[in-house]
Amino acid sequence: MSTFDQILPALSEVLHAQAENLKRLGxxxxxxxxxxxxxxxxxxxVRDGAEARVALDAIAEALAERLGPHxxxxxxxxxxxxDVPALAQGAPHFQLEGIDGVTVVDRLATDTDWAAIAPVALxxxxxxxxxxxxxxxxxTGLAVAAWSLAQAGKRVLVLDLDLESPGLSSSLLPEERRPxxxxxxxxxxxxxxxxxxxxxxxxATSDLSHDGEIYVVxxxxxxxxxxxxKLGRVWMSKVGADGVREPWSKRLHRLLADLEQRWQPDVILxxxxxxxxxxxxxxxxDLGAHGVLLFAIDGEQTWSGxxxxxxxxHRAGVARDIRERLQLVGAxxxxxxxxEYFDGLREAAWDxxxxxxxxxxxAGEPTGERFSFDEADEGAPHYPWPIRWHRGFxxxxxxxxxxxxxxxxxxxxxxxxxxxxxxxxxxxxGERHV
Length: 434
Fold this sequence. Notes:
By secondary structure, the chain is an alpha/beta fold. It has helices at residues 7-17, 19-22, 50-67, 138-151, 168-172, 183-190, 196-199, 227-231, 248-263, 278-286, 300-316, 319-322, 338-356, 399-403, 408-426; strands at 28-32, 38-43, 78-81, 93-95, 102-106, 126-131, 155-161, 204-205, 213-217, 238-239, 245-246, 267-272, 291-296, 326-333, 385-388. The chain has 15 helices and 15 strands. The radius of gyration is 24 Å and the shape is globular. The two termini are 44 Å apart.
């Protein structure tokens, strides 16, 4: 029985077998609808061509047979449109691997589009802190990086985009310094063109700043108010007076641009929601990140999740657009048997990167210009920046008070690789993989 996961392999098999017929049809869009059912969309000019219709009928029959419940009956398998390329606009789409001229358009119930990788943004470097699973010290690492950058005189803008599990602001701001509003307030007010009412009151300056500044934009203000009700609306698209629909991720991009223009940071640190969801997609693919730090602990859940994501980028043909920005961070390296643990983490990371993101290098050939690295290459994106587990940094609630009496040597011992790497990206030295 055919299932969703067999749709693309079935399409490839059928269309490869119909290669000669495809040449008579011109560009083709494969529309996979919200229910996961597939049909072909062909240019209107093909409708009346005798040879083309014979070719179409053969393809439609083969697809109907192979796709089963994920296809349409033969007489409904093909649609004709006057502007086929326009069907892909505003929707996730990718080229069907190995077949020229065939574009798959995915109709999703959300605006998530992990396959649309925005170019690196102009202006201040943007660094995203991401993890497949929560509880790996991601927010703590970001707080330490922000503190270190400010110690070096940088103006640091920090965004807490873990909207469903907020808390980063508590590590950088005491309660009395938290702003009135947060990101959720802006996103909701923007829907009714009232975002200016909260904009100036959604940023607070951390008292941990010394030579530089840390500007913190929390998920919510000091009084969350009806946060659950707001959270149910932040993901909404906005329809302007001209009828143009603006996805929530584009609204978020607009907010970030406005924040950057207003506060003129040297570097922007973004705490992403863990997991493969709406917020993470926006943070990693839509905001023009210069660096994406992938926090990981060695375990099956970690590598299963990252492989799913890497494989999606590979299949969608966008791995080249994102892989140079990625960097693995080895979170919570244990004190006991730490060397053995780190070696296992590095090996698992290399396996995942090599299989889905690195270029294949035939045996006996030099790497050359290929994007590929040896397992032990310390400059490779799979080679973990280690963070040692430390009891004093394990509880996020204690971080702010801990920073008041922090020992810089201790920070170097625990977070040294992360801090050095973030500083390199902030200084424009982070594109070492290109």
